[in-house]
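G., the chain you wanted modeled:
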Amino acid sequence: MSALIAAPAIARLGDNDPHRAVSRAHQMPVQGIDVSQWQGDIDWNQVRQAGIDFAYIKATEGGDHLDPKFLQNWYGAKRAGIPRGAYHFVYWCRPAHEQALWFMLNVPNDPDALPPVLDLEWNGHSKTCPHKISKQKALEKIRIILRAMEVHTGMRPVIYTDPGFYPDVLHGELDVYPFWVRSTAAEPHKIYPGRKWSFWQFTTTGSVPGIRGNVDRNAFNGNKAAWGRVLQSIQAAK
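Predicted structure as C-alpha coordinates:
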Protein backbone atom coordinates (compact mmCIF):
# COMPACT_ATOMS: atom_id res chain seq x y z
CA MET A 1 0.00 0.00 0.00
CA SER A 2 2.78 2.45 0.92
CA ALA A 3 4.41 1.96 -2.50
CA LEU A 4 1.41 3.64 -4.09
CA ILE A 5 1.78 6.82 -2.06
CA ALA A 6 3.25 9.66 -4.14
CA ALA A 7 6.53 11.14 -3.01
CA PRO A 8 6.37 14.70 -1.64
CA ALA A 9 6.49 17.33 -4.37
CA ILE A 10 9.74 18.70 -2.98
CA ALA A 11 11.46 15.48 -4.07
CA ARG A 12 11.08 16.62 -7.67
CA LEU A 13 13.24 19.66 -7.05
CA GLY A 14 16.95 19.15 -7.54
CA ASP A 15 20.37 20.75 -7.86
CA ASN A 16 22.81 20.13 -10.68
CA ASP A 17 25.81 21.07 -8.52
CA PRO A 18 24.78 20.71 -4.86
CA HIS A 19 26.88 22.05 -2.02
CA ARG A 20 26.91 20.07 1.20
CA ALA A 21 26.97 23.18 3.38
CA VAL A 22 23.51 24.29 2.25
CA SER A 23 21.81 20.89 2.30
CA ARG A 24 19.35 22.04 4.99
CA ALA A 25 17.81 24.51 2.55
CA HIS A 26 16.62 21.70 0.28
CA GLN A 27 14.44 20.36 3.10
CA MET A 28 12.88 23.66 4.16
CA PRO A 29 9.10 23.45 3.66
CA VAL A 30 8.51 26.56 1.51
CA GLN A 31 10.50 26.51 -1.73
CA GLY A 32 10.82 29.16 -4.43
CA ILE A 33 12.73 30.28 -7.50
CA ASP A 34 13.87 33.51 -9.09
CA VAL A 35 13.93 33.82 -12.87
CA SER A 36 14.76 36.14 -15.75
CA GLN A 37 15.03 35.94 -19.51
CA TRP A 38 17.91 33.47 -19.13
CA GLN A 39 15.46 30.70 -18.18
CA GLY A 40 13.75 30.99 -21.57
CA ASP A 41 10.13 29.89 -21.88
CA ILE A 42 8.90 28.41 -18.60
CA ASP A 43 6.11 25.88 -18.17
CA TRP A 44 4.66 27.40 -15.03
CA ASN A 45 2.13 24.62 -14.51
CA GLN A 46 4.96 22.10 -14.29
CA VAL A 47 6.81 24.41 -11.94
CA ARG A 48 3.80 24.56 -9.65
CA GLN A 49 3.25 20.80 -9.74
CA ALA A 50 6.91 20.27 -8.83
CA GLY A 51 6.36 21.96 -5.48
CA ILE A 52 7.41 25.57 -6.02
CA ASP A 53 5.56 27.87 -3.61
CA PHE A 54 6.71 31.28 -4.87
CA ALA A 55 8.66 32.97 -7.64
CA TYR A 56 10.49 36.26 -7.94
CA ILE A 57 10.71 37.54 -11.50
CA LYS A 58 13.20 40.03 -12.89
CA ALA A 59 11.37 43.10 -14.13
CA THR A 60 13.69 46.06 -14.53
CA GLU A 61 17.33 47.07 -14.41
CA GLY A 62 18.67 50.59 -14.18
CA GLY A 63 16.46 53.17 -15.85
CA ASP A 64 15.86 51.75 -19.30
CA HIS A 65 16.04 47.96 -19.32
CA LEU A 66 12.94 45.76 -19.08
CA ASP A 67 13.53 42.02 -18.94
CA PRO A 68 12.14 40.64 -22.24
CA LYS A 69 10.41 37.77 -20.46
CA PHE A 70 8.99 39.76 -17.55
CA LEU A 71 5.36 40.05 -18.56
CA GLN A 72 5.28 36.52 -19.97
CA ASN A 73 6.59 35.19 -16.67
CA TRP A 74 4.47 37.57 -14.59
CA TYR A 75 1.18 36.40 -16.04
CA GLY A 76 2.30 32.81 -16.61
CA ALA A 77 3.05 32.37 -12.92
CA LYS A 78 -0.26 33.99 -11.99
CA ARG A 79 -2.25 31.67 -14.25
CA ALA A 80 -0.50 28.68 -12.68
CA GLY A 81 -1.42 29.90 -9.20
CA ILE A 82 2.13 30.62 -8.05
CA PRO A 83 2.51 33.67 -5.79
CA ARG A 84 5.03 35.95 -7.48
CA GLY A 85 6.76 39.26 -7.09
CA ALA A 86 8.96 41.50 -9.22
CA TYR A 87 12.52 42.63 -8.67
CA HIS A 88 14.58 45.60 -9.81
CA PHE A 89 18.34 45.32 -10.31
CA VAL A 90 20.10 48.53 -9.29
CA TYR A 91 22.57 50.14 -11.69
CA TRP A 92 24.83 52.39 -9.65
CA CYS A 93 25.56 54.88 -12.44
CA ARG A 94 21.91 55.83 -12.97
CA PRO A 95 20.01 58.36 -10.80
CA ALA A 96 17.77 56.68 -8.26
CA HIS A 97 14.63 58.62 -9.20
CA GLU A 98 14.95 57.43 -12.81
CA GLN A 99 15.27 53.82 -11.69
CA ALA A 100 12.30 54.15 -9.35
CA LEU A 101 10.15 55.63 -12.11
CA TRP A 102 11.20 52.90 -14.55
CA PHE A 103 10.11 50.22 -12.08
CA MET A 104 6.80 51.94 -11.44
CA LEU A 105 6.05 52.33 -15.14
CA ASN A 106 6.72 48.69 -15.96
CA VAL A 107 5.54 46.63 -12.99
CA PRO A 108 1.78 46.18 -12.55
CA ASN A 109 0.43 46.89 -9.08
CA ASP A 110 -1.42 43.59 -8.91
CA PRO A 111 -3.36 42.99 -5.68
CA ASP A 112 -2.05 39.43 -5.36
CA ALA A 113 1.64 40.20 -5.96
CA LEU A 114 4.33 39.52 -3.38
CA PRO A 115 6.26 42.51 -2.01
CA PRO A 116 8.70 43.95 -4.57
CA VAL A 117 12.42 43.27 -4.28
CA LEU A 118 15.37 45.62 -4.66
CA ASP A 119 18.38 43.66 -5.91
CA LEU A 120 21.54 45.15 -4.42
CA GLU A 121 24.86 43.95 -5.82
CA TRP A 122 27.92 45.66 -7.23
CA ASN A 123 27.91 45.85 -11.03
CA GLY A 124 31.43 44.45 -11.29
CA HIS A 125 30.80 42.73 -14.62
CA SER A 126 29.25 45.79 -16.25
CA LYS A 127 31.08 47.27 -19.24
CA THR A 128 29.74 50.75 -18.50
CA CYS A 129 29.55 50.91 -14.70
CA PRO A 130 31.91 48.42 -13.01
CA HIS A 131 33.10 50.69 -10.21
CA LYS A 132 31.77 50.96 -6.67
CA ILE A 133 30.34 54.08 -5.08
CA SER A 134 30.55 55.20 -1.46
CA LYS A 135 28.36 53.68 1.21
CA GLN A 136 26.66 57.03 1.76
CA LYS A 137 25.79 57.50 -1.89
CA ALA A 138 24.65 53.90 -2.23
CA LEU A 139 22.32 54.20 0.76
CA GLU A 140 20.88 57.43 -0.61
CA LYS A 141 19.99 55.71 -3.87
CA ILE A 142 18.65 52.65 -2.08
CA ARG A 143 16.33 54.63 0.18
CA ILE A 144 14.88 56.62 -2.73
CA ILE A 145 14.03 53.46 -4.68
CA LEU A 146 12.70 51.61 -1.65
CA ARG A 147 10.33 54.47 -0.83
CA ALA A 148 9.07 54.60 -4.41
CA MET A 149 8.50 50.85 -4.49
CA GLU A 150 6.48 51.02 -1.30
CA VAL A 151 4.37 53.88 -2.61
CA HIS A 152 3.74 52.02 -5.86
CA THR A 153 2.79 48.66 -4.34
CA GLY A 154 1.56 49.53 -0.86
CA MET A 155 3.99 46.96 0.58
CA ARG A 156 7.35 47.24 2.25
CA PRO A 157 9.97 45.99 -0.22
CA VAL A 158 12.38 43.13 0.35
CA ILE A 159 16.12 43.72 -0.01
CA TYR A 160 18.13 41.08 -1.91
CA THR A 161 21.88 41.12 -1.47
CA ASP A 162 25.02 39.02 -1.80
CA PRO A 163 28.26 38.49 0.17
CA GLY A 164 30.16 41.02 -1.95
CA PHE A 165 27.80 43.95 -1.45
CA TYR A 166 26.48 43.37 2.05
CA PRO A 167 29.58 44.17 4.14
CA ASP A 168 30.36 47.29 2.10
CA VAL A 169 26.95 48.94 2.42
CA LEU A 170 24.24 47.02 4.26
CA HIS A 171 25.83 45.67 7.42
CA GLY A 172 23.96 47.28 10.31
CA GLU A 173 21.66 49.23 7.97
CA LEU A 174 17.99 49.15 6.92
CA ASP A 175 16.88 46.72 9.61
CA VAL A 176 13.20 47.55 9.09
CA TYR A 177 13.21 45.78 5.72
CA PRO A 178 12.96 42.03 5.14
CA PHE A 179 16.17 40.59 3.72
CA TRP A 180 16.71 37.98 1.02
CA VAL A 181 20.28 36.73 1.20
CA ARG A 182 22.45 34.85 -1.25
CA SER A 183 24.54 32.15 0.42
CA THR A 184 25.38 29.19 -1.81
CA ALA A 185 28.28 27.67 0.14
CA ALA A 186 27.39 28.29 3.79
CA GLU A 187 24.47 28.82 6.14
CA PRO A 188 23.30 32.46 6.10
CA HIS A 189 24.31 33.14 9.70
CA LYS A 190 27.94 32.52 8.75
CA ILE A 191 27.91 35.08 5.94
CA TYR A 192 25.49 37.60 7.46
CA PRO A 193 26.05 37.32 11.23
CA GLY A 194 23.30 38.94 13.26
CA ARG A 195 21.10 39.68 10.24
CA LYS A 196 17.55 38.39 10.26
CA TRP A 197 16.47 37.10 6.87
CA SER A 198 13.22 36.08 5.21
CA PHE A 199 14.48 34.36 2.05
CA TRP A 200 17.61 32.35 1.31
CA GLN A 201 18.99 31.91 -2.20
CA PHE A 202 20.93 28.70 -1.66
CA THR A 203 21.90 27.62 -5.17
CA THR A 204 22.20 28.98 -8.69
CA THR A 205 22.27 25.51 -10.23
CA GLY A 206 18.80 24.36 -9.26
CA SER A 207 16.78 21.90 -11.30
CA VAL A 208 13.02 22.39 -11.51
CA PRO A 209 10.58 20.64 -13.87
CA GLY A 210 9.23 23.11 -16.41
CA ILE A 211 12.52 25.03 -16.64
CA ARG A 212 15.31 24.08 -19.02
CA GLY A 213 18.79 24.43 -17.55
CA ASN A 214 19.82 25.87 -14.22
CA VAL A 215 17.65 28.12 -12.09
CA ASP A 216 18.18 29.92 -8.79
CA ARG A 217 16.43 28.19 -5.94
CA ASN A 218 15.31 29.83 -2.71
CA ALA A 219 13.70 28.95 0.60
CA PHE A 220 11.42 30.96 2.87
CA ASN A 221 12.50 31.20 6.50
CA GLY A 222 9.42 29.63 8.03
CA ASN A 223 6.94 26.78 7.80
CA LYS A 224 3.85 26.45 5.62
CA ALA A 225 1.66 28.09 8.23
CA ALA A 226 3.95 31.11 8.43
CA TRP A 227 3.97 31.38 4.65
CA GLY A 228 0.18 31.25 4.66
CA ARG A 229 0.13 34.18 7.07
CA VAL A 230 2.40 36.15 4.72
CA LEU A 231 -0.02 35.60 1.85
CA GLN A 232 -3.00 36.53 4.02
CA SER A 233 -1.28 39.75 5.13
CA ILE A 234 -0.77 40.71 1.49
CA GLN A 235 -4.46 40.29 0.76
CA ALA A 236 -5.34 42.30 3.85
CA ALA A 237 -2.99 45.12 2.85
CA LYS A 238 -4.65 45.45 -0.54
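The beta strands are 14-15, 31-35, 54-61, 65-66, 84-89, 117-120, 158-161, 179-182, 199-207, 215-220.

Shout if anything looks off.
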